[in-house]
Predict the 3D structure of the following.
Amino acid sequence: MNVIMKLFVVGLISAFVASGSFAADVTMRISLQLPIKSHLGQNLLLFKEQVESKSNGGIIIEIYDSAQLYKDKEVPAAVGSGSIEAGVASLTRYVGDIPAVDIFYQPFLFDSEEKVRKAVAKGSAIRGPIDDAIKDTGSTVLWWQAYGGAIMLSNGGAISNPDDMKGKKVRVFGKTLGQFVEATGGAPTLISGSEQYLAYQRGTVDVGMTGVSGVKSRKLYEVMDTITVTNHADIEFIVVVNTNWWNGLSGDQKKIISEAASFAEKSVRDKMSEIEAEAYEIAKANGMNVVIPSKSDIEAFKKASSSVYDNYKSKAGSLGEILLKAASDL
């Protein structure tokens, strides 16, 4: 190798080292179904910044947003099998293995921010058993991401009470939410979050169910004109890592990731009210009508959907009994 070629190679190597390409000891890929501009995406960027900074580039975080790698429903299996190191999934995606996780979708059970915060606190009588149960799927929970209350989307009028649901096809993102729809007179259709826009645009469904932050991040105001603020369920996402991968990390690496996860969790929870308020304002600015049901309408929804609790009790087993008891204690 001549001198010029040696200098070129050395320079190339130096450039890679300087850029951090050779510095990373660990790469952690995270699958996200939402756009990176969503508040969950921004929360992952905050986590990434914390981890890479505290590890001096020893741990690199790669985020694959907008369901580039896996749809929401595919994340539990992908992470549990080790096909990817980490992923973000709606908590209800674990209902097949752990029916009790749908405690958060029992109609109007967590009807205040105070109750939600107590329920989702790390190690609480509700979250603690859920995190433990998820370990049996091959995944370990890093942190919970708040997504806010469930709302209804529609065109041409609000979904203020059960009468407005009758005969309507409704997008849902979990079986228990489907039971809520059936109990109140509608026909549920399970549609992934990343497929919502097209479903509304094409008229695949008449009514949508989501969190209001999704209206902003997915520009759903372009295809729906009305939001009904029912807040009939609390939507939670969780960031999970493959347990075998996690166990293979050093103590220092785990500490850095865990501390960054705690920081990210507190950040998104504390900002949730602000995030929702901003999303409502953006929805209004883009022509959407925001309707708040009356107290009597909410009572009608509660009465009509009482059977959802019976279904939960029959399927959620002893863990479900424990979680319902803990929720009632709130």
